[in-house]
Every structure is written in structure tokens, then in C-alpha cells.
Amino acid sequence: MKKRIATYNKTKEIIKKYNIRLNKNLGQHFLIESKVMEDIVDIAEIKKDDNILEIGAGIGSLTEYILKEIKEGRLFSVEKDNRFIKILKDLFKDNKNLVIINHDILQIDWDKFLLDNNLKDKKIKVIANLPYYITTPIIENLLFSPLNIEKMVVMMQKEVAERLTALPGTKQYGSLSIFIQFHYQTEILLKVKPDSFLPRPAVDSSVVRLIPHCEVPYNVKDKDFFFKVVRAIFNLRRKNIKNSLTLSPHIEISKDTIIKGLKMTNINSRIRGEKLAIEDMVALSNNFLKIINKKE
Fold first, then answer.
1. What is the pTM (predicted TM-score) of this model?
2. Tell me: domain 8-212, CATH 3.40.50.150, correct?
3. CATH T-level fold of 223-295
4. Which of 15, 69, 91, 232 could serve as a FRET partner for 9 with CA atoms 20 to 30 Å apart?
């Protein structure tokens, strides 16, 4: 029986055979725990005809498990490192469902990708063991892409996962929490220890499921303005919301408008921004606009 890639011995064998030196600074840590792979695939609920985007395929540890589930769909595995491209082509040369893309995920022309692969308007699932140093830029890139994402199941550093899913009043709660939760339902579904990787990372990891809202559940009058307000609120975390907004370089609102807006929204000016739910910040942003527009 063929030995799975996601084992300590097989991973070591591949690394040695292809004379690979791993760069920890680029997040090159390979999963060697089959149970973690199985759990990721289960969370993704892969169907035989799914189109799946895998980010950072590496030597194909997770690729192998995804391909087991796909019979009629396609797996688009993106890998930037040329050394791993050769490994992927060697290991999966007979698989017709795999499309290997040698590219930087942050530099892909998504419109061209959709056109070239006849994916326009088709749903795509994203599955990835993300490079920890660029987790947030990758998620933001996907969020603003034209991809019709059905769900994302992504491995990331535990601390980042906690920020993405954080609730008001916690120290992890911040502008990133609000930005992601505004667009996605987020949930941590799996925690992964360092010994599940080769080489071992210095941090724990988590698998997060992100499902786009069918409709954004927040009635924001101006989304760009709203996110400027959010960044301003968290600009000086240790200060109260009035002072954070007044002193922030992210937005220009007069002190008088800030005081009036807080009062209209029934928000105590001495509270810290981290105590506010997204709904509160939406209402505050909308009220600021009402005041500003009246003045004009």
C-alpha cells in the first residue's frame, strides 16, 4: 500500500530525496499528522464535483487528502516555491483533477484565473495551511477577489485565529475581528499542536472555518467610512472611545461631532472601543454621517 505523504518518515524521505532546505521564516512547516488532515477534509465537506483552491501546497501533504475526495471537480493547488512544484508534479503526475499553479497567491490575477479555468460564477472552496507570516493579507486578498467562495477552511497561527473570531470585551478583539466578522461567519473548529508539523513551529495552530454571509447582516450607510471609524476606535486601545476617535489619524471628525454621535448612539464616551459590538459601531458610524451631512 502507498505510504501517505503526511507522516514523519515519508516527509523526511521526500525532503532528503529532493534536497530541500526548509525556510521557517516562510512558514514552511509540513503537516505529518493524518488525523489533522482527515479533520480538515471533514470540516470542508468536500463533494466529488467541488472546485477547490489550495494555498501553499508544499510537498502535497494536504493535496493528497483533498484529491481522495474529488472525482469530477478540480483542485487548484497554488505553490510559489519552484522546488515544491517539481515534487507535486512528480507525486501527482497521473491525477487529472489536479491543476498546479506556480504563483504567488497575492499576485494572482483572479479575473484571468476564473476565465482560464471556466470558473466564472462557480462556487469555490478554499482549503489551506496558510503561511503564518502572510495569513491576514491572503484572507483579505481572497475577500476582495471576484471568487465565488462557498467556504474557507484554513490553518493559521492560534493567536491570529483568536483575533479573527474574538468577541467584544476580550483582549484579542480588534479591527481585524470586525473586518473579518463583517464579511464571514467565523469559527475555530480544530486546535493543532506543534508536533503535528515537520519542522515543529514555535506556536500552536488552529483551523478556522469562514463562511461568507449570504447577505451582510449590518446596515452600513458607507462601508469605507465605517471601517475608517473602526480603525480609529482601535487606534489607541488604552484610551476611551472619545479620545481614540479625537486623536486618531485614520479619520477626520470634529470633537463636537464625535460627542454628538456617541450621545445619539447611547454610547458612554468613557468606554473603550473593545467593549462595543459590531452593531454598536455600525450605528455610531451611521450617526456620524447623519451629523456630517446635516452640517453640509
1. 0.91
2. yes
3. Helicase, Ruva Protein; domain 3 (1.10.8)
4. 69
